[in-house]
Amino acid sequence: MSGLLSPIESASGIEKLPAPGIFGYSGAAKEFCILAIDDNPQDKRLLRLALKWARFQGDVSIRIADDCETALTSLVSGTSPLPNLVLISLERKGKRCLKALEKLKQSDRTAAIPVAAWARTGDGSLDDAYAAYANCILQKPETVDEAEAILTRLVRFWSMPGILLPHRSNR
Hints:
CATH architecture: 3-Layer(aba) Sandwich
Radius of gyration: 16 Å
Helix content: 25-40%
Number of domains: 1
Largest sheet: 6 strands, mixed
Number of helices: 5
CATH superfamily: Response regulator
Order of helices and strands: EEHEHEHEHEH
Structural class: alpha/beta
């Protein structure tokens, strides 16, 4: 693993690499890995504390990267393991992050990885984030409780197996 990402922190206290496959459904995979990309030290601290106190129904880990372009490029190139979800900050380097996000979504290797972007209220880059293929936009948390709630909802939503509805014919 490159030195660009911090070691994986696991809610269970065990360091593991995420299992290959999208959404962790590659067989017996039980861990859900989030790649959080944020260069704000306060926001990274909130994420770490939220992970520590969150109650998940399985192992959840977070890898934290400071530089969006480098982190996303390493996913596309195959030099970093694939996460189950990418969480990108739209602050500071938002425009450059969105260009890297477009490349992530154009790659066969990484196109199916869901991406949640987050920003403080009043950030004008929401339309740009959706145009770059972000799956959802969230308001950045201000407290550990808010960060825990966001992580819990993201993990619950993106780790659920998809349910295919039966095809309805026009008979």
